[in-house]
Write a structure and sequence with these properties.
Helix content: over 70%
Order of helices and strands: HEEHHHHHH
Strand order of the largest sheet: 1-2
Largest sheet: 2 strands, antiparallel
Oligomer: single chain
Structural class: mainly alpha
Radius of gyration: 16 Å
Length: about 170
Amino acid sequence: MQAKIDKKRSVVWLCTTAMLMALNVAMSSFGVPVPGGHLYLNDIVICVAAIILDPLGAFMVGGVGAFLGDFFFYPTPMFVSLATHGLQAIVISVFSHYVLKKRPALASGIGVSVGAVIMVVGYSLGRAFIYSTPEYAVMKLPYQILQAVVGAVIGMLLCWKCGIRKLYNKGLNK
């Protein structure tokens, strides 16, 4: 009986991770045009995945998914995306699953806040390094902050108000 439950959990975890990774690739392939740049919505997927999945699944969705999205459509920052979004997803997942176990929504909120800072700092440093000009990184900073805030807020709303986390845990029979 226990083997059947473990097999079901593995299948649900694998399918959820693969689906969210594909969604991350799709969402990182296009941006919403805003004055002076683009707003990418893949941070929403990364935050949702990190809240519901364990750190390994979160890294696969966040880091590898963003890496593949950049690899297929805009390869210059793909390693920056791997490191930044991967670390962002791991931190959010660790906070969501292992910190403040009695207050998981608060833990997730702290996690997405720390993850947003990691994303903004990581992309700013990565852009300054890749494009060899800190001015370009500073110019894109408002868009990075907007992307991080939108991803964190909508990700939290989807998981906690719309019930995605509850639905995922129900599928795992937790």
